[in-house]
Structures are given as structure tokens and as C-alpha cells.
Inverse folding.
């Protein structure tokens, strides 16, 4: 049975980004079958995170601009996740506040299920804003 801790561990330690994405999708499917857990996810408006996620997505896919997204948070788990679109691609974001680590998952070709992934780490500044510590070029599968 998938759990949030397994996803967090995979995000930190796995080098197979497709496996991390698969763990996220399995977790979301599992949680969606539990109304009490689904109800814990709340829409959030976090300008700092929205800005950082926009910079990450538009940096990974510089030929596309105007990234728009919706964010949700399961506060008990510190998991922020969301979806959006850019350049016709579906973008999924996952981020854990307590480890300042996340992943951008882009479905680059829905007909073939081709995906691109960018894992990233953030740092919280004394001002409360975030800065990107590391991110890479999109890894494809």
C-alpha cells in the first residue's frame, strides 16, 4: 500500500525519476479512494512557491511560457502538489516542505505517455522566500 513516507524516501534517494513519478501517481490513486484523506487536501495560494514552480517549469521548457497551475496541500504530510499546463503539456508538481525537495513531471506527449522530469531542491531564505538550490535539465523517458 503506497504511503507518503515512501514517496518522500523515493524523492530523496531514487535516481529513477519514472519510478518516483509512478510512486506519486499510485499514492494519489490510493488517497483518492479514502474520502477522509482526500478532504485533507486544501487548495493553497502561495505566491513564493507559485513563482518558484513557474521559474522551474519555464526554465526546463524555455520554448514555452505562460505556465498556469493550481496547488493543493496535505498539511499533515507537508505535501504540496498541483497541476498545470504550459505549451500544451500537462505539468504535475510535487514538493515536500519539510525536506525542501520536489519534482516537476511533464507529460510531453500524451499519445505516447512520454514524460520529462526535473527534481529540485529549495532553500528558505530569512525573508521567508525560497531560492532554487539545485535543479537539472529535464530527464526524459
Amino acid at each position: 500500500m503506497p504511503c507518503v513516507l515512501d514517496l518522500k524516501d523515493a524523492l530523496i534517494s531514487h535516481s529513477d525519476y519514472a519510478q518516483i513519478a509512478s510512486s506519486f501517481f499510485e499514492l494519489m490513486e490510493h488517497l483518492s479512494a479514502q474520502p477522509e484523506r482526500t478532504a485533507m487536501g486544501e487548495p493553497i495560494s502561495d505566491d513564493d512557491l507559485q513563482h518558484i514552480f513557474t521559474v522551474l517549469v519555464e526554465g526546463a521548457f524555455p520554448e514555452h511560457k505562460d505556465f498556469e497551475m493550481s496547488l493543493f496541500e496535505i498539511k499533515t504530510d507537508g505535501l504540496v502538489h498541483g497541476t498545470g499546463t504550459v505549451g500544451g503539456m500537462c505539468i504535475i508538481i510535487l514538493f515536500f516542505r519539510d525536506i525542501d525537495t520536489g519534482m516537476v513531471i511533464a507529460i510531453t506527449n500524451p499519445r505516447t505517455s512520454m514524460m520529462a522530469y526535473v527534481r529540485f531542491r529549495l532553500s528558505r531564505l530569512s525573508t521567508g522566500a525560497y531560492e532554487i538550490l539545485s535543479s537539472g535539465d529535464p530527464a526524459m523517458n
In short: The chain has a mean pLDDT of 86. Helices lie at 4-13, 17-32, 35-38, 47-60. The first strand starts at residue 41 and ends at 44.
